[in-house]
Specification:
Length: 337
Amino acid sequence: MTRLDLKCIHEPFGDAFYYGPERLSSRFENDEERRNASGFSNSSYKTVFDRIDREGAEGKRLFIKDIAHYLFPPAGAPSSIAPTLARKERGIGTRGYDPSAAPSEANGASHPYPYDTQPEPGNPTVIPNDMLKRFHFTFLIRHPRYSIPSFVRCTIPPLNKVTGFDDYMPSEAGYDELRRLFDYLQSTGQIGPRMATHNAHNQCGQGLNDRMENGHVDGVEICVVDADDLLDNPAGIIEAYCRSVGLTYDESMLKWDSQAHQTQAEEAFEKWKGFHEDAIGSCDLKPRLNKKKVKTKEEEDAEWTEKFGARGAKMIRETVDANVEDYEYLRRFALKA
């Protein structure tokens, strides 16, 4: 976020997922006032792409941090393409996207999903594959034993008064959707088979410069970053990440201690108040002095019961256990420094 040669966009697809006429989440389904107050009640998946195009027109390479389940139908439902992105015939021999096709009942009582559109064979998302191909995908993962309690904390007092998320929904864990997106991109050749490594030459013996064109890698490497690895070795992991995506590493990326950097971060995180306060309150990324000790299940359950009560601890345990397999699957591909 501190790099002046990049333009960062923070979770733009959440606008359409939670608030807009094509929303997939039921979180604010019965709260029209909240959807309108968000400022994103008219945001469709098409308007999100329009924003990305506008930001990209500034000439800088875009870095978009987002959440995979924002692109998926709820509860594992069969997918179909978002109406404003669905192809519509426009005369003989021409086809284009229809920006006016968002469900008209979206701000009423009826949930807009399922869409009245056709699926793309094999595509588990609501985004057409030819639009997914515009992105250079990389993946950030974190063990659910850490991510789930962290999210739950944002949905109970006092933080829920800031975030506006008044209950935890296990469907928002997102590991299943992340794995399915990962597998789909592999199956279509949009990532892999090469895996990102810390070395300048990958497994095929091919140097990065041999595969570069306009700052992008031809044949995107599989690049998965585990948050624990990042926290244990920030410089090594970020340097390896930069190498994989075609950026020059600079150690200044690990610091954001100026007022300008703080203001930039606060503006980027403004939409999701309460979720990023720890990051906003920090000024650099240093290696942890001691690696995180893995607790026993009994120790975890006791800690969660103390913090969240017996009911909350039970929900966290069930959600963690339900998502460990998907995390461990993705962990097999994690970048090592």
